[in-house]
Design goal:
Blueprint: E1 5-18, E2 22-23, H1 25-30, E3 37-40, E4 51-52, E5 58-69, E6 72-83, E7 87-101, H2 104-111, H3 116-120, H4 122-133, E8 137-138, E9 147-158, H5 164-170, H6 174-178, H7 187-194, E10 197-198, E11 205-208, E12 212-216, H8 223-256, H9 263-267, H10 270-295, E13 299-300, H11 304-317, H12 319-369
Parallel strand pairs: 9-12
Antiparallel strand pairs: 1-7, 1-9, 2-8, 3-5, 4-13, 5-6, 6-7, 10-11, 11-12
Helix pairs in contact: 8-10, 8-11, 8-12, 10-12
Keywords: Membrane, Transmembrane, Transmembrane helix
Protein name: DUF155 domain-containing protein
Organism: Mesoaciditoga lauensis
């Protein structure tokens, strides 16, 4: 049997940047005239009762042009995506039609995705977009800048009808594509990859890994693409707050590391302790509020299929692990706050004792003087 061919396919490359605490999407709409077009994320196959994103992200069209991939014609569309969580992403979509060998995915990966900056001038698009959209990003900017990239390989139709199992069987390089491997993977890794395969009907397929996903959907729906996109945005946001906690804790620990040598000098550290206490409380409130916002930015209910994809993708992307990391660090922040409060209390006690001693000394001095 020869190599299977794709009649209609797409490749999506995402590069997602965390910019700030949040973004004003209504202001993004007001700046849309600076771009070629605008689109707000909307799930096509299911309604908001199944997948609810209260404030869906906005995509802005910034470029489009034809491309030659080996002997095949393709078309590139470049978009900016702004999410209310304070992220901005560059999305490059490469579309192709005709009887194209499925190995084109590997060619696109090697020739374009592996060096997306050179192939698509990602940083240029990002900087130009940020120059225009900078005012929409709110909150104090921190020099913590996690970046994530992700690829999705999408087939709407093959040159002949195929069932999901046939796609897995006939496309033997699928695990290697999703793991960006140019060597054959072990049987264990291949089997583990294909365990994360989902089908709603017998002629559609979704396979998800940490590096990329493969989707076969004859209906041409973008719903799974949008779920994965949003989850990656959540991941970048949570990683941002994990790194922010690291950065702020280093600063506070540096402040607290200059411990007084005795109770007397501790009195003069009251201001430093009070400042550290205030910063710790502000940090806790900021991160808890932001984490709640990020975790509640999407709800998947009712539909078992989409819920399975959502929950499995969360697990594969390690979202729960990052959330647990943030929770552990918040616990450390709270413990540090308690320690600082104890030190403050001790310093005040010492200060009061010193005042009492001074008053007694003054009284005695006055008594003996007279």
């Amino acid at each position: 049997m020869g190599e299977i061919k794709v009649n209609k396919g797409r490749v999506y490359y995402y590069k997602i940047y965390n910019i700030s605490d949040s973004a004003d999407l209504e202001r993004v709409v007001s700046l849309a005239s600076n771009f070629k077009g605008i689109k707000r994320l909307r799930f096509e196959r299911v309604g908001s009762d199944v997948i609810d994103i209260p404030n869906p992200p906005i995509q802005l069209y910034i470029d489009e042009y034809p491309i030659k991939i080996d002997d095949f014609d393709g078309y590139v569309t470049v978009k900016l995506e702004v999410n209310e969580l304070g992220t901005m992403g560059i999305i490059v979509e490469i579309e192709f039609t005709g009887e194209v060998p499925i190995s084109i995915f590997k060619i696109i990966q090697k020739s374009y995705i592996d060096d997306a900056e050179s192939a698509f001038k990602i940083d240029t698009y990002f900087n130009n977009g940020l120059n225009i959209l900078g005012p929409v990003f709110k909150g104090k900017y921190e020099k913590v800048f996690p970046i994530l990239d992700y690829s999705i390989y999408y087939v709407q139709s093959f040159d002949h009808p195929l069932k999901a199992k046939e796609v897995v069987t006939e496309y033997g390089d699928l695990p290697e594509l999703l793991h960006k491997s140019y060597k054959q993977l072990s049987t264990q890794v291949r089997n583990r990859t294909l365990r994360h395969a989902f089908s709603y009907y017998n002629d559609d397929l979704v396979v998800i890994t940490n590096d990329g996903a493969f989707i076969y959907d004859p209906d041409g729906s973008d719903d799974v693409i949008d779920i994965l996109d949003f989850l990656n945005t959540q991941l970048v946001t949570i990683r941002y707050y994990d790194e922010l906690l690291n950065k702020r804790m280093r600063e506070i620990n540096s402040m607290l590391s200059k411990r007084p040598t005795n109770s007397l000098t501790e009195i003069f550290k009251i201001r430093e302790h009070n400042d550290a206490s205030r910063k710790l409380m502000a940090l806790t409130v900021e991160v808890k509020s932001a984490m709640d916002h990020a975790q509640n930015a999407i709800h998947v209910t009712e539909d078992v299929y989409y819920a399975r994809i959502y929950m499995n993708a969360r697990q594969i992307f390690g979202l729960s692990s990052w959330e647990e990391s943030v929770e552990r660090k918040l616990e450390i922040v709270n413990n540090t706050y308690d320690m600082v409060q104890h030190n403050l209390s001790h310093a005040f006690d010492n200060f009061l004792e010193l005042i009492v001693i001074l008053l007694i000394f003054i009284e005695l001095f006055a008594f003996f003087k007279h």
